[in-house]
Specification:
By secondary structure, the chain is α/β, with parallel strands linked by helices. Strand 1, helix 1 and strand 2 form a beta-alpha-beta unit. Helix 2 runs antiparallel to helix 3, helix 3 crosses helix 4 and helix 8 packs across helix 9. The longest helix has 39 residues.
Length: 266
C-alpha cells in the first residue's frame, strides 16, 4: 500500500483549528506517510455529476463523499476526515490492509474515521460506481439518507459486514470496533481505551442547521452531564428553536409518546 494519507478540503477556506490539529497528529502518529490534500486545484470534481452538483450547491462535504473513493481507487493509501485526530501510532494496523472502523452511534463502517486500501479495491470501486450513477439533490431528507457512511456500509454488507459494534473479519477486510477510532464521548470527555487509535471531532458541516443545535449541545454538555442527558437536552432545544414553543413542545411530547410505546412493546 502506498504510504499516503488523503484528505479533502474544498471551498477555498482556510483550514480549521480542528483540521490543523488533526494533520499534526497524522504526521506524529503515521510516521513516513505523505499527507495529501485534494481540492479544486488538483481534482476535476466536474467529471462526476454528483460532485459537480454538490460543489455548485456549496456542500463541500458531499463533494468529498465521491472524491475520497475515486482517489482511493486510483492510488490506494489511507483516507481520513480532518476531524480524525490520531493519538497512537497506527503502524501496527498496516499489516491488516484493507481495514476501516465502526462509528459508535450509527453502527456504520465509515471512511471518515479511517479506511486503508490497495488501489482498485473492489469495495471502493463499487462505491465509485454508485456515486457516478446517482443524481445529487440538496433536499435535506435526501442528504440525511444518502450519507457516505451508508453507501460504504452497504457495499461492505454485501461481503459480510454486520451492523454490530464488534471487531469483524470477512473476505480480506478488518473492521475495528468503535473503541479504536470513535471512542464514546460522555462524562469526563472521551473514554479512551488502550486499543484507541484516534478521537473524532466531527464538525457536522453537512448537517441541516436545526440539527447542529443538538450536536453543539451534546458536544459541550456531555463531559459534564453525560451523553444521554445531553442528547435529551439537545433534542428539546432543537425542537423549540425549530418550531417555536407550541410546535416544538408538541413534537417533544410526540417523541416521548413514541418512546413509551416502543418500551411497552419491547
Amino acid at each position: 500500500m502506498e504510504k499516503v494519507i488523503h484528505y479533502c478540503w474544498f471551498g477555498g477556506n482556510p483550514l480549521s483549528e480542528t483540521a490543523v490539529k488533526s494533520l499534526a497528529s497524522w504526521e506524529k502518529f503515521a510516521p513516513g506517510f505523505e499527507v495529501k490534500q485534494w481540492n479544486e486545484d488538483n481534482f476535476d470534481f466536474a467529471s462526476c455529476s454528483w460532485s459537480r452538483d454538490a460543489y455548485t450547491a456549496g456542500l463541500w462535504a458531499f463533494v468529498s463523499d465521491y472524491v475520497r473513493f475515486k482517489v482511493l481507487d486510483e492510488y490506494g493509501g489511507i483516507y481520513m476526515d480532518v476531524g480524525s485526530e490520531l493519538i497512537r501510532d497506527i503502524s501496527p494496523l498496516l499489516k491488516s490492509v484493507p481495514f476501516t472502523a465502526i462509528e459508535e452511534s450509527s453502527l456504520t463502517a465509515t471512511t471518515g474515521l479511517i479506511v486503508a486500501v490497495e488501489p482498485h479495491d473492489p469495495v471502493i470501486q463499487a462505491c465509485v460506481e454508485r456515486y457516478e450513477s446517482m443524481v445529487f439533490s440538496s433536499d435535506p431528507d435526501f442528504l440525511d439518507k444518502i450519507t457516505v457512511n451508508e453507501v460504504f456500509t452497504a457495499e461492505l454488507q454485501k461481503i459480510g459486514f454486520e451492523r454490530v459494534n464488534k471487531e469483524q473479519h470477512f473476505s480480506d477486510w478488518l473492521v475495528l470496533d468503535s473503541k479504536a477510532f470513535n471512542p464514546v464521548y460522555g462524562l469526563g470527555g472521551y473514554h479512551i481505551k488502550r486499543e484507541t487509535y484516534s478521537i473524532h471531532r466531527s464538525s457536522g458541516s453537512w448537517v441541516e442547521p436545526k440539527y447542529r443545535i443538538k450536536r453543539n449541545v451534546v458536544r459541550k454538555c456531555s463531559p459534564f452531564i453525560g451523553r444521554r442527558l445531553s442528547q435529551i437536552l439537545g433534542r428539546i432545544l432543537m425542537e423549540l428553536a425549530d418550531g417555536g414553543l407550541a410546535v416544538g413542545t408538541k413534537k417533544i411530547f410526540g417523541v416521548v409518546r413514541e418512546k413509551i410505546v416502543k418500551g411497552e412493546k419491547s
